[in-house]
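Dear colleagues,

As part of the handover before I leave the project, I'm documenting each prediction I ran so the next person doesn't have to rerun anything. This entry is a single chain, and its sequence is reproduced below.
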Amino acid sequence: MKRMARGAAIILAMLLAALAATIAATLLWQQQRWISDHEHRRDQVQAQALALAGVQWSRQIMQDDARAGSTDHLGEAWAHPLPRTPLENGSIEGSIEDAQGRLNINNFGTNDALGKEERARFARLAGARGVAPASLAAITVALMPPPAENATQKGEPVPPATAPDRRPVRAAELAAIPGVTARDVAQLLPFVVALPAATPLNLNTASPVVLAAALPDLSADALAKLVAERAGKPFASISDFRSRLPSGAAVPDETSLATGSSYFLVSVRARQGETRAQARALLRRDGRDWPIVVWQTLE
């Protein structure tokens, strides 16, 4: 009996030791997990702070650029992307793009010469990108205000053509329009933007694809030559642009074109440890004042 009791005591002691070791291991694992979660959260907060700081830095760049003159072109400092720059346990990189180098889909809602011209540009862009006619028709109907005379005949209230709540905030909202395919939206997104006000197209920053839609009378060779000349000598004014066109080339009304811009898209990517964050923003610059953040996202 004594031997059995002694053996049971030894087994019990071994079980207790094993239990204590298991508890200790569990506590250590939980502590390490807590430390890991804490470090991850800390890195996440720091990465997000870096990304947001990049947006503020972009505002300073755009204000400094405004002091240099009213013309905006791809040779200016803001147009050169910030390469990945190492920081302590992380990095940051980003870019600024002239939003007025794209077609503004919110120009559709105006019934003036600018709205008419923008719809024509968009149709040409859609055709060049292989967008289905059904998608183009659905987008046009969705973005244009209902004709006032039709609404009046039906006794319906006429929504104001420039009501802010009827305008897309982001170009990606095109995907929510019934009848528009995801493929067609993907073909358009690199070349369109949704801005909160009617804007002209900046001839100095528009891509060759957008310029082709805006200047249909130019041949491919003439357009390529114009883009090459623009790289060495940006257009100082609309009259300067007209003087450098091929003889006989027709261009839209001056109100639909510009050589300077007010809206800029900012994208900043930051890394801290293994955590990454990305901030996107639309800036509006009014003269030399501190640029306004129209919208901002943080991922």
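Residues 2-68 form the longest helix (67 residues). The two ends are 70 Å apart (CA to CA).

All the best with the project,
I.
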